[in-house]
């Protein structure tokens, strides 16, 4: 599992870890029941504090993406279809907001925007 930490990013390190692992789970690159690196192992590999790694894992567990088995480690939880749907809906809403702003700056009408989307959707 490749996790990249950016020291120049304004995003906290624990959040970078959390976001990247969450993305791997949602995309299916990390499958259900798959073991995550140990908290200590990942901290050593990334050269960061164990506390920082634990905070990222705690957040993932709190949101239901992973679960912990005492003495064995952390594993990818069974995918909650509704939770994944909600995550994707949030992403779509964010992208649609960006599209609306860009469309307004180009003086596109709602009808023109819908027509563009319909053409793209049919191509898929």
Automatic annotation (TrEMBL):
Domain of life the protein comes from: Bacteria
Cytoplasm among keywords: no
Gene Ontology molecular functions: DNA binding; DNA-binding transcription factor activity
InterPro entries listed in its UniProt record: Tscrpt_reg_HTH_GntR (IPR000524), WH-like_DNA-bd_sf (IPR036388), WH_DNA-bd_sf (IPR036390)
Domain HTH gntR-type, residue spans: 11-79
Keyword flag Lyase: no
Keyword entries, A-Z: DNA-binding, Transcription, Transcription regulation
A Pfam family of this chain: GntR
UniProt feature coiled coil, ranges: none
SUPFAM superfamilies linked to this entry: Winged helix' DNA-binding domain
TM region positions: none
Name by which UniProt lists this protein: GntR family transcriptional regulator
Species name: Hydrogeniiclostridium mannosilyticum
């Amino acid at each position: 599992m490749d996790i990249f930490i950016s020291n120049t990013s304004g995003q906290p390190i624990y959040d970078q870890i959390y976001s990247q692992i969450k993305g791997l789970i949602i995309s299916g690159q990390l499958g259900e029941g798959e073991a995550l690196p140990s908290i200590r192992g990942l901290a050593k590999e990334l050269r960061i504090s164990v506390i920082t790694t634990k905070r990222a894992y705690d957040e993932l567990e709190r949101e239901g993406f992973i679960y912990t088995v005492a003495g064995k480690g952390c594993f990818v939880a069974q995918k909650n279809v509704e939770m994944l749907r909600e995550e994707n809906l949030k992403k779509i809403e964010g992208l649609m907001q960006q599209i609306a702003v860009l469309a307004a700056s180009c003086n596109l009408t709602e009808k023109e925007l819908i027509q563009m989307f319909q053409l793209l959707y049919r191509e898929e």
